[in-house]
Amino acid sequence: MRVVIVGAGYTGTQLAKYLINEKHDVSIIEASEDRARSVSNRLDCMVINDRGNNIKALRDTGISEANALVCVTGSDEMNMVICGIAASLCTEEGKLIKIAKVRNEDYIHLNSDNGKKVLDIDYFIHPGIEVARSIIKAIEHGVIGAVLSFSDTPYELGAIDISAGSGLDGISLFDYRKLVKYESLVTLVERGDDVILPSGSTVLKSGDHVHILADTDNLPEIYKLAGDNQKPINKIGIAGGGKIGSLIAEGLLNTDSIINQDDKNINQPKKSIILSAFSRIFKNKNRHVVIIEQDSALCRELAVRFPSALILNEDISDESFVNEEGLDNLDCLIAANVNEELNIITSIFMKSRGIPRTIALVTGSGHAAMARHLGVDVVIPIQHVMVDSILTKLMGSGIKEVRSLGDGNVELIEIEIGSNAPVIDKPISTFKLSAGGLVLLVSREGESFIPKGDYVFKEGDRIVLIARFGSQAEIEKYFNTDK
User: Fold this and answer.
1) Are residues 344 and 457 in the same domain?
2) Tens of pLDDT along 83-137?
3) How far apart are CA 344 and CA 358, in angstroms?
4) What share of the chain is helix, strand, coil (3-state, %, to 5)?
5) Boundary (domain end) residue, out of 72, 95, 125
6) C-alpha distances in Å from residue 68, one per residue of 26, 94, 306, 434
7) Is residue 373 part of a domain?
8) What domain range includes position 79?
9) Distance, CA of 372 to CA of 329 (rounded, Å)
10) How many structural domains does the chain have?
């Protein structure tokens, strides 16, 4: 696949790095000379130092023959205009997938309200909306760790830390199967700096961060075995009422919000089984939201926008304010400031004050790993969320969804088995990736199940698998995914 990326910031660079490692042909256009030089030295791809709306620069990337254009500059309007220009330069209608990053949700509303493409753009990616969805999903599941929902199935993939002395501390996965009577699967174990794709002989230890696939109704019982006593999240604090903080509040308080819509209801025509299950999010109607924001003018705007929320014009880092307002009675605090270090410190401090659950927004994976080791319950790396969302929309008709797990070196991938795929009518034992991988879940003719040793691949099966980063070429070979 030939991909043109406009904008070499963190998102554009990480996206390019992934695609290059997967042997795709990547070209980058970057307006900043220093940034273009830096990216050119780090990545093995064409880098053009120019503005993305320069027609010559677009032509030099081979845009007329490209399969996808991803515009992730800092300007919504620039991203949209570039997509419109590129559409006019393409020789084959419908061949070029056009993706634009925007921060103005009005553009997304425009697409969803009239069902027409704006400037022939196929997909809008809104950082705040993507992050807000991830946070709301985590809250619905008790803020115990990242949770991936499978909306067409009763299964979810949850993550939790193993507590010392808990029922899962010190047992092998052979014994896990005897202890846990429900159908479930330990899919990944993060232990310090190691990321383990486990086997039956793997022994779980206290401090391990494990990802477990199970029925939604059974996950809480498994969490209890891991040492977690889950309680409802009713009173939620949001530290930071800026763009992302207000979107989170909107998603929590307004069931009709675009935050609570699946991508298929906005601008994603292809159905996927790894979607945010927002139809289940508002089972608890008794939630109370408190927003703590230092900017008084912004507080007035928030008060008008969210009349049912308590708006506090205070500094979350002021210890006397925390004491006076009794914030330690919150069930969860979401640290959503633009300063990621402040988010981590705030989360840790508020946990020390008795708040049972905290969520922190960070930029990338480096601070994410640090925050989790320091005790933050859920860490949302904004850029990873963005890259995952873009990759999902770039994949062909066979690969439906891509999600990063662990430190980003392991991926959760949803695939529909294509016609004439080598695995058709063969047992699951034929699936062996060189770097390791595991089929977690199968959906076939409306039924979903965790595959056993006697499972045989069939054309049209929708499967979810976990694999090491860089395994895409092998996966395409096995399942004949159509790029």
Assistant:
1) no
2) 999 998 887 776 899 999 999 888 877 765 555 677 889 899 998 988 998 888 7
3) 9
4) 35, 25, 40
5) 125
6) 10, 10, 39, 29
7) yes
8) 2-125
9) 22
10) 4
Give me the half-sphere count of Cα atoms (radius 13 Å) on the Cβ side of residue 427.
Answer: 4
Q: Are residues 381 and 239 in the same domain?
A: yes
- Unique residue bearing structure tokens 């419109």: 84
pTM of the complete model: 0.74
Distances (CA, A) of 181 to 54, 150, 178, 205, 227: 61, 21, 7, 20, 17
What digits encode the pLDDT tens for the residues 155-198? Answer: 888 888 898 999 999 999 999 988 998 889 999 998 887 888 88
How far is the C-alpha of 168 from the C-alpha of 172, rounded, in Å?
9
Identify whether the C-beta of residue 337 lies closer than 8 Å to the C-beta of residue 343. yes
Q: Are residues 110 and 176 in the same domain?
A: no
Helices (H), 125-215: 127-140, 173-179
CA geometry: angle 180, 207, 380, nearest 5 deg:
95
DSSP code at position 430: G
Q: Residue 131: inside a domain, yes or no?
A: no
**For 387-397, what is each residue's pLDDT tens digit?**
888 987 886 54
From 192, 225, 258, the end of a domain falls on 225
